[in-house]
Amino acid sequence: MERVRVRASATSANLGAGFDVLGLALDEPYDVIEVEPAERLEIRIVGKGAGSIPLDPEKNTAGLVAKAMGRDVLITIHSNIRPSGGLGSSAAPAAGTAFAINELFSLGYTREGLVPIAAKGEVAAAGVAHADNVGPCIMGGLTIVCGDHAKSVAMPDVSVVAILPDIEVSTKAARELLPACVPLREMVLNVGKACMLVAGASSKDPAMIGRSLMGSFNEKYRSPLIKGYEDVRAGALSQGAYGVAISGSGPTMIALCPGERSKHVEKAMIGQFGKHGISCESFITRVGQGVQII
Ligand SMILES: Nc1ncnc2c1ncn2[C@@H]1O[C@H](COP(=O)(O)OP(=O)(O)O)[C@@H](O)[C@H]1O
Ligand SMILES: N[C@@H](CCOP(=O)(O)O)C(=O)O
């Protein structure tokens, strides 16, 4: 095999209470990652991140993955996910590269086995190897990561409305905001919400999923970074959203809703950010199925 091309999609990590544990694969947007054997490890980037994303393999999430797998390859990243947006822009190249190298050299890893390898790439972006973006990016659906284990749960048919306000929030900075310890009662609440979210997915109950997205540890400490957060959330719920959360470390907000309400929810969320003087990009997508060869 001369070259492998894969599509590696955006992801929405944490899903409220599932900090560093839960993540949702999105269908779009996605990066295209091309990997081919080379004399030395080299990275090329075209698209949204070109010029801002480091090409030094030691500072690039895809480069760290190739080094962890011990392979000299040329990696071309066609970048379509807004960097520092809360949509796993750093994770998609890491996940795609792990999957492509596994295919190119017939290494025999399972999708689950690739997750901890891909997570090593996130050290370049967040300073820690968190797997709640690379996990869903590789596995698809709603993914639960714990240690080196990753399991995917199918989601009911919901629309995902993503609103990207014109605010910059880096994962590294957003992680530094979080306290090292939380009170026992707060931990119990978040574990309960995370469990109910997974229960909602497995019982195909989108309302239960939606309720579990809100009132989390992640929301409490990070929503102050997103001007108008409460109003935007209220706007989405008033138009029929099941629930709203900060996507990853933010500033993107996601709303899960019935397909027929997605345009109404999108318009309400954008309108509320507008009332706070903030412009936004937005898109509507569905739950993704994980990295695919194209
Ligand atoms: N291959 C990569 N793709 C995207 N970002 C990368 C990559 N390698 C390193 N980075 C760095 O990671 C940061 C984006 O990661 P992060 O803050 O986690 O954003 P996101 O919320 O989109 O995941 C950027 O500062 C970028 O320079
Ligand atoms: N659990 C991480 C998830 C970061 O997601 P990203 O899409 O913002 O990179 C965190 O919240 O720090």
TrEMBL record:
<feature type="domain" description="GHMP kinase N-terminal">
    <location>
        <begin position="62"/>
        <end position="141"/>
    </location>
</feature>
<comment type="similarity">
    <text>Belongs to the GHMP kinase family. Homoserine kinase subfamily.</text>
</comment>
<comment type="pathway">
    <text>Amino-acid biosynthesis; L-threonine biosynthesis; L-threonine from L-aspartate: step 4/5.</text>
</comment>
<dbReference type="Pfam" id="PF00288">
    <property type="entry name" value="GHMP_kinases_N"/>
</dbReference>
<keyword id="KW-0067">ATP-binding</keyword>
<keyword id="KW-0418">Kinase</keyword>
<keyword id="KW-0547">Nucleotide-binding</keyword>
<dbReference type="InterPro" id="IPR014721">
    <property type="entry name" value="Ribsml_uS5_D2-typ_fold_subgr"/>
</dbReference>
<dbReference type="InterPro" id="IPR036554">
    <property type="entry name" value="GHMP_kinase_C_sf"/>
</dbReference>
<dbReference type="InterPro" id="IPR006204">
    <property type="entry name" value="GHMP_kinase_N_dom"/>
</dbReference>
<comment type="function">
    <text>Catalyzes the ATP-dependent phosphorylation of L-homoserine to L-homoserine phosphate.</text>
</comment>
<dbReference type="InterPro" id="IPR013750">
    <property type="entry name" value="GHMP_kinase_C_dom"/>
</dbReference>
<dbReference type="InterPro" id="IPR020568">
    <property type="entry name" value="Ribosomal_Su5_D2-typ_SF"/>
</dbReference>
<dbReference type="GO" id="GO:0005524">
    <property type="term" value="F:ATP binding"/>
</dbReference>
<keyword id="KW-0028">Amino-acid biosynthesis</keyword>
<dbReference type="Pfam" id="PF08544">
    <property type="entry name" value="GHMP_kinases_C"/>
</dbReference>
<dbReference type="GO" id="GO:0004413">
    <property type="term" value="F:homoserine kinase activity"/>
</dbReference>
<feature type="domain" description="GHMP kinase C-terminal">
    <location>
        <begin position="203"/>
        <end position="269"/>
    </location>
</feature>
<keyword id="KW-0963">Cytoplasm</keyword>
<dbReference type="GO" id="GO:0009088">
    <property type="term" value="P:threonine biosynthetic process"/>
</dbReference>
<keyword id="KW-0808">Transferase</keyword>
<keyword id="KW-0791">Threonine biosynthesis</keyword>
<dbReference type="GO" id="GO:0005737">
    <property type="term" value="C:cytoplasm"/>
</dbReference>
<feature type="binding site">
    <location>
        <begin position="82"/>
        <end position="92"/>
    </location>
    <ligand>
        <name>ATP</name>
    </ligand>
</feature>
<dbReference type="InterPro" id="IPR000870">
    <property type="entry name" value="Homoserine_kinase"/>
</dbReference>
<protein>
    <recommendedName>
        <fullName>Homoserine kinase</fullName>
        <ecNumber>2.7.1.39</ecNumber>
    </recommendedName>
</protein>
